Amino acid sequence: AAMLKFFHAALSRLSRAQPFDLLAQTAELALDAGLVLIVDPQPRPKLIGGPNPLPPGLLGRASAVRPLDPGALKPDDPPVCGTPIGHDPPFESVVNLPMVCGFRPILCMVFPGPQGIEPRRLLRFVEVGRRHLAEVALTQRYRADLRRYIGMFEHMERTARIGVWEIALATDELFWSDEVFRIHERPPGRTPTVQTALDRFVEPGRTALRDALDVLRRTRTPCDLTLPLVTFAGNTRMVRVIANLQPA
After folding, report:
1. In which element (H, E) is residue 152 found?
2. What proportions of the chain, in percent to the nearest 5, are helix, strand and coil?
3. What is the band of 170 on the pLDDT scale with cuts at 50, 70, 90?
4. Burial tier of 216 (Cβ tally within 10 Å: 0-12, 13-18, 19+)
5. Collapsing DSSP states into helix, strand and coil, what is residue 227?
6. How many whole angstroms separate alpha carbon 125 and alpha carbon 180?
7. Which residues sit opposite 96 in a β-bridge?
């Protein structure tokens, strides 16, 4: 139960991350640029980081500008002012920096200020951006792995009809996996309270289970009981309840 809950919690944290917005904000500060957009250029330009909405046609026109080759820059070269694209400020010119996130090409669109951007600042940012995107690619791989592991656990649950559950002793918060919801004939969603879950068991099994959980709390003695349960749909079925105290 703890492992499946950890997978779900980790996936939730990773899904909330906005790495490309962070990269755009970092670039604006590092380059003192008017605006920075992070764009997925394939199959057609798509904004994945930076402010929205944008002027119509901006991404298409800006992405058509040939990317800058950072390797051709020298720190003492004149400021880079970008290529004019015929938009109103701050979109009058753009510098396209090609980057890669894993195997995915990424375009960092930099709209310079009137003074342009010092090449040394561009070169420093390119190094920072590459490290950031390497971390993003690793996070995306972790997210894909977590989704796969969760799918495997849920498949095993459905096949074996074994659900996993957990009670946080400090808060009495109850966690149910999807299979526990199915066993209780309750749609997956909000987990009931501990008391509501205990109330589904028929006496004297309810008291026996409550006593066994109390003993588990005090002595760490595992709980293993087979008891009648009345589902939320009103059907009675026999279930086996197994519990161990997990280390914090």
Report:
1. helix 119-160
2. 45, 25, 35
3. confident
4. middle
5. strand
6. 50
7. 109
